[in-house]
Design brief:
Chain lengths: 159, 159
């Protein structure tokens, strides 16, 4: 499987905010998670590296938590960007979010050799605060579910 | 600050279960989190690497989630080991846990240049299920709090 996101919100973050270890395109060591729309849902694909093990053959939970975290902030950014009238690729700078809280329920061991697919449903709970419900699939199996509360990045971060 | 854990539970996991990207001593690419007792609390120290950024100068949330996750399973292992009459260093093989759920509340931006200290308080909620409340400090500031529910690793993992 070589699923791919064509228009990812992270491709359009300003360079100063593109250094996230999870989803920053400028961070050479990072995971480069890329999040886009799939209809009304959001999606991120990721093939874990061989070192991302919990026990041999299964994916490290912290990597799954990282995927859910960045998928959540990316999904919130997509949703507010759409609310503002824009889609990735439009050339408008998207809003940037930070994570207020992250919850993960690990449902079953996640196989190492499979592309993971995070699927999100975004709900606005305040004009600057979005909740994203996430399911992480390995093939047809939901291996983890999660919830991210993301808030618009405070101006104080942008010094 | 060069705080260190002298007797870590992860030092005594059997080799087959020491490959965790977060806390496995055999995983050359991993974080090598090490968790030990500090009185009745548990503690893990970690200096984030330069690439573990959220935005430049601040630590990536997924790294903090990973620290809380492994600190939680390590703390649960310490607690059940102690209940069974053993301390790290005794030579007895400790019980191994997996994460059922992970919750993180990000309280404030976490500075990149400071050793992080995760502190845990462990509560048994079932003979095979432990809840660990975690605070992550950078210096004197609590940057994140979390909760891990950890369960004894099912025998089916040990094939």
């Amino acid at each position: 499987m070589t699923e791919n996101v064509k228009q990812a919100i992270q491709d359009e973050y300003p360079e100063d905010f593109a250094w996230c270890y999870g989803c920053g395109r400028m961070n050479k060591e990072g995971h480069h998670f890329r999040t886009g729309w799939d209809g009304e849902e959001t999606v991120t694909y990721y093939q874990p590296e061989s070192e991302h093990t919990a026990i041999p053959g299964f994916v490290y939970g912290g990597l799954i938590a990282s995927l859910i975290d960045c998928h959540g902030t990316g999904s919130a950014s997509l949703a507010l960007h759409r609310k503002n009238g824009f889609e990735p690729g439009s050339g408008e700078e998207p809003p940037r979010f930070v994570t207020a809280s992250l919850h993960v329920d690990f449902k079953k061991p996640t196989p190492q050799d499979t592309v993971l697919k995070a699927v999100g449903r975004v709900e606005e709970i305040h004009p600057k605060k979005f909740k994203v419900a996430v399911e992480v699939f390995a093939g047809d199996a939901v291996c983890a579910t999660g919830e991210v509360v993301a808030v618009v990045m405070p101006a104080s971060f942008a010094k």
